[in-house]
Amino acid sequence: MNAFAEALAVLHADPNLGEDAVYLPPGNGTPVPCRVLRRQPDPLADMGQHHVRQVGWVFSIRVAELPLPIKGAKLELGSGREPWGVMPWDGLRDIFDVQLDESMLTHRVSVR
Prior knowledge:
Strand content: 35-45%
Largest sheet: 6 strands, antiparallel, barrel
Strand order of the largest sheet: 1-2-5-8-7-6
Low-confidence stretches: none
Shape: globular
Number of helices: 1
């Protein structure tokens, strides 16, 4: 494990930054518990005279925990959270985009 991978492991494990999630593959695949970091993209993308609203949330998942997430799978978020701590992104979310980062250490997973 290189220094970047170790740093990502520490960030994902931090209770203030990372949160528990469960990856649910399509069909009857085995659920995979993992830690995710929520990333907040700009809600509006400026395209000259037009603005495009981005839908959903983006999460970072380490490749070491989840080697190959796929579109069409689901991500369950916040299942162990106390009722007073429920967040807007909690629940069962559909994965509609997966991108591997440049360092090949994390997946950028977009859900809605």
